[in-house]
Amino acid sequence: MGESLPPREGERIPRRTAPDFEELGDEFGVAQGIFHGGFLNVAINDSNQYGPHAMIALLGVVAFITGIGLLAMWII
Fold it and tell me: Where are the domains of the chain?
């Protein structure tokens, strides 16, 4: 990573090369695919095709933790 592709006609910002990507077969479901490469690795680095699903799950976890923290501050 870090290498950039040459800009196309009319573009001023160079594109970065695509990251390494592991294509999982049909034998993996969504939950198995997310945890196959490690939850945070799939969510943050988008290491397989279930990256968007893992990012939505991570968003839910962070929102839940934030909600619990705000509720605890309001009660105390």
Answer: 30-75
